[in-house]
Amino acid sequence: MSDYVLQCGAAPTAGSKYLVWVDQVGAFLLSLKNEVAIGGPAIDGGAADISFLANLSRRHATIVRSGERYVLHAQAPSHVAGRPVHDRSDLTDGCEILLGGSVRLAFRQPSVMSGTARIDFLSDHRPARAVDAIILMDDTCLVGPGTDKHIRCRPGQSALLLYRRDGKLWCKSREDVFVDGQHAPEGAELRSGSVVTGNELRFRIEQIG
Amino acid sequence: MKFMFAPEATPLSGYTIKRAIDRGGFGEVYYALSDSGKEVALKLLQRNQQVELRGVSQCLNLKHPNLVTIFDIKTDNDGDHWVIMEFVSGKSLEAVLADYPRGLPLDEVEAWLSGIAAGTAFLHDRGIVHRDLKPANVFRESGIVKIGDVGLSKFITPSRRSAQTESVGTVYYMAPEVARGKYGSELDVYSMGVMLYEMLTGAVPFTGESTGEILMKHMTEPPDLSKVPATFREVVGRALHKDPQRRTPGAARLLDEFRAARQGKPVAVDIPASHFVNVPEIERKAAVRPEPMPAGYGPRVSDATIHYAADGSPRAGQGPRPHSPGSPPPLANPFGNAMRNFGEGLNHLGDWVSEKFRKRPWLFSIVAVLLVVNLSRGAGLFGGRGGINIGGTLALMAIIYFTVKTVADKKQNSGAGRRSPGVPPMPTVAPVAQVTPPPPPVTPPKPPVKPAGKKNAPALTPATLRSIPWTRRASDLTGAMTMAVIWGALATALLTVLRFPIAVDQERALLATHGGLGLWGLVTILGSWALLGSSKVLEGSAIGNQNRRLIQTAIGAAVGAIAFALQHELLVDLPIHSSFDGLFNHIGRLPLTTDVSVDPDTQIRFLQPTLAGYVVYFGALFGFRRWWLLADSFRVKRFSIFSVIFSGFIAFLIPAAFVFQQNWGAMWGVAIATVVQLSAPWIAPAKRAVPPAAEPAAVAA
Predict the structure, then answer these.
(1) Which residue of A has its CA nearest to B40?
(2) pLDDT value of position A37
(3) DSSP letter (8 states) at residue B324
(4) Are A199 and A208 spatial neighbours (Cβ–Cβ below 8 Å)?
(5) Taking a C-beta distance cutoff of 8 angstroms, is the pair A174, A134 a contact?
(6) Which of B10, B107, B179, B620 lies 20 to 30 Å from B207 when distance is taken between CA atoms?
């Protein structure tokens, strides 16, 4: 497993998991880790990175980013694109992941310009913190209107870029955006609790891990 | 879009706002977490607080799986009111529709519709109308559809259908009666109809550049149902009816009809007879379409039994016609269907003519006499000289049929009239229910409904009094006259091609000449002009029918005189077989015909109409028929083939009374009726309007 970590970019230093609350759009779990464990609820600790309220093993599967590839390692019964995964399986844009017998997820890579992936929920199962999607962020995360964005906003809302810089999370846009009320034409670092506003767009980012 | 509260704000103790969800017509909605982590939606009431609070208070303790639950109402330190609601994380129907731009799969449509119908029916049952049903207000979480924004609902009872000045609902889903400020639960059914339309097609029925334009379309424009799958057109069309009283009666009924249509079952129609008074025929047909009922169809009694009229009597021709247990099922093959449609068409024709005669017994008497005369002559339409008069024979058979039918109808009506109101009669024909005892009807017999008066008539008719500016009349008339020239020329050209197939030799030869064609075409155009002119001048005025007939008779006489002059100018003879005779061949001392030629082979004499013959014939033709009904902008249909046939029929019969060239007369009757209808402007029923100053009223028939 360490092979995959070594192949990836700089590990995040400021945090590895965020919640992004976007007005009028939804809530998103932003994971900056290269290896994300998925599992069921665990009351006594040891929960997976993404813990679903579902009948899953505590660590049911792990999604690992390797360069531009994503691989699912199954630790419990899992299917990818309808086929059972005995050990690992590549994830491709649009493929469906079935964990256990009921948790259905969709794996998407909406932009060829970014290695970031998005996991949508096809079944009604959600993580304990109710979000609308999980973003497995590589170097950049696209926010704005359009189907090629990882966080798809409403028409008319600003488009901007979340990106890693020096192990921290930054944000910039061609349009006028403000981070915590400060105009940020050259981009600005995002901290836990930062509020980003643009044209018809407002979101707050909150570090949770 | 700026929101009042920032993330992490805590305007209400115990709740932390995490993000804004949306801004509705009544305020902002936020996603918030309670201190213990419970997700809620917080709705801040900013405008219309009192209206909203009243509605929410009524709904506070409503519990239904298809309604978003309201937990509480609280007031913050600034005195603002907050509604704490269940947060639904599932997708809204709006978001789902965005994923299916060409419409949802039918399973999805049914799933959404059933949830919406259940929730809405529950609200209606509690006397509440939602008023803002739209895809953005409907969600689906864990497979359960939930209707949100119930707080916007207005507590309403039948006695409180008063004007409401607040803007209600979203314009794409807004029922036409909202613009009039008077509405009830039918409003929600309309919104459901729009949503159903959108789920089936991916688009709303009415769009526009502005709110006003969309509203106007809701009020006046019929929805384009051609985009809706044929199976569901009837269901959607009824749910989107402009008249709330003729709309699908209830949310649950809409779901029933959708399911029945999906399963290929005929959709039952249950509209009180009183709603069909003074309603144009085209709309009547759209609302009531008798469908044969397959034997053994479904357990639903409302579909399997006879539909009751307002007085509790069973009404034939409305709703499915029950089959007797022993009757064979309807034909399923295409030929069978075609024959059945043809049969239904004949029934419609029969009903129409029967209705005409029932309203005017004198008309029946005159037609009968003329037919007898016509038959006794031994020559005429479809018959060669001295041959069997097939046309007359058929017409006589039709008269017998209509007589019997009229008498039967009257008997049935008088029998129904004796029935006690409100007491459902025993079905005259037992449906499938003979095998199993019939359960009580789903829809109980309605109490007697007062027949809709003219004021309540939903559509405007030629009888509607209205003030039409003279400039408008002039422009309508000139346009119509121009069109009449075009259509008249086309009719003449068509006649040239057809070579007057039903004409006898002399007439066919006459039409082969330029003079004959010219006479026929010019008189057609002239007659059409005359009728268009008189109709347009008198349109919407209070002049009674008899006076109109007199005016038309005078105009017809003038047209006849001009036609006579044309005949002489064009050096054309209009031969009438000497064996042809009518009730009158003289008016006083004036002969209606004169000798013109003798066939050298057969020594048969031929006559032709005199000036008096022309004047009397066209005078009678114009005076006998209510031609203004064919030219009025508010006529039932733009073009009615029945009117053409009826006009031809009248024109064919007049020579039996006043001698004239019968075939030419009939053809002129047909052609003038056709040209007048095609040329006269027509306003679709949904677009008709009268100036507010002119209260719609009706001319005494």
Answers:
(1) A130
(2) 94
(3) P
(4) no
(5) no
(6) B107
Q: Which architecture, in CATH terms, is B93-309? A: Orthogonal Bundle (1.10)
Token pair for residue A140? 């950049």
Residues A100, A84 share a domain: yes
Give this prediction's pTM.
0.50
Shared-domain flag, residues A159 and A200:
yes
Q: Do B1 and A200 touch (CB under 8 A)?
A: yes
Instruction: Say if strands B81-86 and A188-189 run parallel, antiparallel, or are unpaired.
Output: unpaired
Q: How far is CA B155 from CA B52, B185, B590, B609, in A?
A: 11, 10, 77, 74
Domain limits for position A92:
36-129
Who among B1, B7, B141 is closest to A21 (CB)? B7
- Interface predicted TM-score (ipTM): 0.81
**Are residue A115 and residue A198 in the same domain, yes or no?**
no
Find chain A residues with C-beta within 8 A of B32's C-beta.
none
Any CB–CB contact under 8 A between B94 and chain A?
A: no
Classify each residue of B526-564 as buried b or exposed e, where b means 16 or more C-beta atoms within 10 Å of its C-beta: bbbbbbbbbbbbbbbeeeeeeebbebbbebbbbbbbbbb
Whether A83 and A122 share a structural domain? yes
C-beta atoms of A195 and B3 within 8 A: no
Distance of alpha carbon A176 from alpha carbon A182, whole angstroms:
10
Domain boundary among A103, A129, A155: A129
CB contact under 8 A, B39 and A27: no
- Residues whose CB falls within 8 Å of the CB of residue B565, separated by 6 or more in sequence, listed in order: none
Q: Which helix (H) or strand (E) holds A27?
A: strand A26-31
DSSP string, B560-572: HHHHHHHHHHTT-
Report in angstroms the alpha-carbon separations of A19 from A208, B243, B249, B381, B670: 7, 50, 47, 88, 78
- In the 3-class helix/strand/coil scheme, how is B510-561 assigned residue by residue? HHCCHHHHHHHHHHHHHHHHHHHHHHHHHCCCCCCHHHHHHHHHHHHHHHHH
Task: Name the E strands within B318-372.
Answer: none
Helix (H, G, I), strand (E, B) or coil at B432: helix
pLDDT of B118:
95
| A164-205 confidence digits (pLDDT tens) | 888 889 999 988 999 999 998 888 999 999 999 998 899 999
The CATH 3.30.200.20 domain(s) of chain B lie at: 15-86
CA dihedral (B88, A161, A150, B86) in degrees, to 10, reads 0
- Among candidates A184, A164, A181, which has minimal Cα distance to A173? A184
Q: Tell me: do A200 and A162 sit in the same domain.
A: yes
- B397, B442 contact by CB (below 8 A): no
Q: Sign of dihedral through CA atoms B505, B507, B511, B513?
A: positive
CB nearest B7 (choices: A130, A132, A195) = A195
d(CA B237, CA B248): 9
SS3 B380: strand
pLDDT higher at A167 or B562: B562
Annotate B639-660 with b (16+ C-beta within 10 A) or e (fewer).
ebeebbbbbbbbbbbbbbbbbb
Cα–Cα dist B42/B84, whole Å: 5
Q: How many residues does chain A have?
A: 209
Record the tokens describing residue B51, joined without a space: 């209206």
Each residue's pLDDT tens digit, A77-93: 999 999 999 999 999 99
**Nearby residues of B612 by Cβ (< 8 Å), 6 or more positions away:** B587, B590, B591, B592
Domain-terminating residue out of A69, A98, A129: A129
For residue A39, which of A151, A130, A125 has the smallest C-alpha distance?
A125
Fold exhibited by the domain B15-86: Phosphorylase Kinase; domain 1 (3.30.200)
Name the residue facing A24 among B22, B90, B143 (closest C-beta): B22
A23 with B141: Cβ contact below 8 A: no
d(CA A118, CA A33): 13
Please tell me whether residue B95 adopts helix, strand or coil conformation: helix
